[in-house]
Amino acid sequence: MAAPVEIAPGCLWWAGWLDRGGQESLAEELREILIRAPLFTPRMPRTGTPFSVRMSNCGPLGWVSDETGYRYQPTHPETFEPWPAMPDVLTRTWAELAQTALAPEACLINWYAPGARMGLHQDRDEREFTAPVLSLSLGDTAVFRIGGTSRKDATRSIRLESGDALVLSGPSRLAFHGIDRVIAGSSTLLKQPGRINLTLRRVNPGDAGEIPPP
Ligand code: MD3
Ligand code: FE
Question: What is the reported pTM?
Answer without folding.
Answer: 0.97
